[in-house]
Amino acid sequence: MWRLVATRAGAVLATRAGAALATRRAPCTTLRMFATMHISRTSDSILDKEKRRQQAQDDIHEELTEHSREEDEEDMAPINERLDPTLMPDLYPDFDAEATETDDSWYVDPAFTPQPPLWQRRMQEKAVPHDATLFDLCHSVVEDSARVDVVDVADRCDWTARMIVVEAKSARHMHALAEDLLKAIKERNRMRGVELTINVDGRESDDWVVVDLGSFVVHLMTPEAHQTYDLVKLWTTTIRAPAVEEEEN
């Protein structure tokens, strides 16, 4: 009897002790459950917002694309419905048919366009005819790109009447002028059917080239040679005879 009572009393105490322990643990478990549920709901809310934002962007992009496609379709009429401005100029008063013509000039590379020689371009610009005198031809070839002086030496030289003294910018420029001059003379002689002997001296020189054409001579010189020899001053300075003192009787 007493053993049964003691056993029941122990069971009751054990039950109460377990209930008390469970009651103390309950708050911790409840907090964990609430925290887990809050985190889960927060994550779901963030994912939902991200999905809605992405969906809104996709919808806007699709609407803009569709709107642009509709505008393009409205602007582009079928080929068979388009009007030709050249056939109906009254409907297109601002249409310029000449401006729409294809310009093929840009296909031509200027580097491969044949250019006339320098002497020929100068003759065309100055309108010097091929039947001009040989002196005028030579003078026109060199006068635009160099300093040119003409000296009359008929009264003091027995082998020529005039000199054309040309001061080039450099040795290379001097030789280029000499070649242009010779080409112009040969072309003139060919067109007139005339054979003329051209004497050239100094083709290999670095400072002075002479073209002797008989009645006149062309001197092509670098700036240094022009200053050193100063042919203009040499052939224009009056040479005075020395005064002769009378002997005293």
TrEMBL record:
Lineage: Eukaryota, Fungi, Fungi incertae sedis, Zoopagomycota, Kickxellomycotina
GO molecular function: ribosomal large subunit binding
Top-level lineage group: Eukaryota
Disordered: annotated segments: 45-76
InterPro entries: Iojap/RsfS/C7orf30 (IPR004394), NT_sf (IPR043519)
Protein family (similarity comment): Belongs to the Iojap/RsfS family.
The protein's name in its UniProt record: Ribosomal silencing factor RsfS
Pfam families: RsfS
One of the GO biological process terms: negative regulation of translation
Gene3D superfamilies given in the database record: Beta Polymerase, domain 2 (3.30.460.10)
Biased composition (Basic and acidic residues): 46-70
